[in-house]
Amino acid sequence: MGAYQALESIPDGTYARIEGIASPRRGSYSRFLTRHEVFPLIASRLIVDRRGAPDESLRGYAFPYEGEGRLSRAGSRYEGVRDQFAQLGELPRGGDVWVLEDGVIPRRGWRIPLEALFWLLLVIGPLAVALSRASRGRRQAA
Fold it and tell me: Which residues pair with 38 in a beta bridge?
């Protein structure tokens, strides 16, 4: 657990493997029709956001947690979660808090290539239409 003290030097979006004891206090939310469970790790400044419905058999119990995913500073998206866990005494009120998005591996999967393709088509499509109209206008003028 002492290794979590050097988080300030890690850049946002880094792939990380983390171990710790999950707090018995948990929360859940839904995003894009997918359930997520959030919980802090005891004696750390880490929140774990893992995809899937909360395991009801573990509700109210601390358990050993091992996970991997994208580690980044908790931004405005997690502000309410952080405030709730800080009120419960699970997280410090001040300073930075980090979020491990369990199972999200940076630079892997289809998201980035599909997003690049989308932006490429968004730029090339109107450009192709403009060029075809310009060449059609030249043919009619000649």
Answer: 27, 49
